[in-house]
Amino acid sequence: MGRVYRLNAYLNCKLEKEDDYYVIENSLLDIVGTGKTIEYAKLSFAEEFDFIYSRYNKLTDKELTTKTLLARNFMNLIVKEITK
Predict the structure, then answer these.
(1) pLDDT score for 2
(2) Helices 66-78 + 38-58 axis angle, to 10
(3) CA angle at residue 40 from 42 to 47, to 5 degrees?
(4) Residues 25, 32: contact at Cβ < 8 Å?
(5) Nearest Cα residue to 12 out of 23, 22, 27
(6) Which of 56, 36, 35 is nearest to 46 (CA)?
(7) What is the end-to-end Cα distance of the chain in Å, rounded?
(8) Contacts of 47 (CB under 8 A, 6+ apart)
(9) Rounded CA gap, 4 and 84, in Å?
(10) For every residue of 26-84, which 3-state class applies, written as one string?
(11) pLDDT tens digits for 17-31?
């Protein structure tokens, strides 16, 4: 991705193994990452976080649902800085 997100707070996630895959989930933001290893699941989660953060911040309040607006506001609250 080329970006590093530094957060003001921990982002609590649930890690589970389902069959042959690891699943990392944050239900508050509705973000899920999956992979054959924990490292691949983390990478998948990070890519999804990056996509959602970028996407939600490109949209206006009116273009977001109540849930996605809350998610965007929470993400903006916890993201301290983004570096490359």
Answers:
(1) 84
(2) 110
(3) 55
(4) yes
(5) 27
(6) 35
(7) 9
(8) 1, 33
(9) 6
(10) ECCCCEEEEECCHHHHHHHHHHHHHHHHHHHHHCCHHHCCHHHHHHHHHHHHHEEEEEC
(11) 999 999 999 999 999
Contact 42, 30 (CB under 8 A): no
Residue 18 CA to residue 32 CA, distance in Å, equals: 13
Dmax of the chain from CA atoms?
40
Checking if the pLDDT of 1 tops 90, the result is no
pTM for the model stands at 0.91
Please identify which residue in the block is written with the tokens 């998610």: 71
CA–CA dist 28, 70 (Å, integer): 9
Which domains are present in the chain?
Answer: 4-77 (3.30.160)
How far is it, in rounded angstroms, from Cα 7 to Cα 39?
20
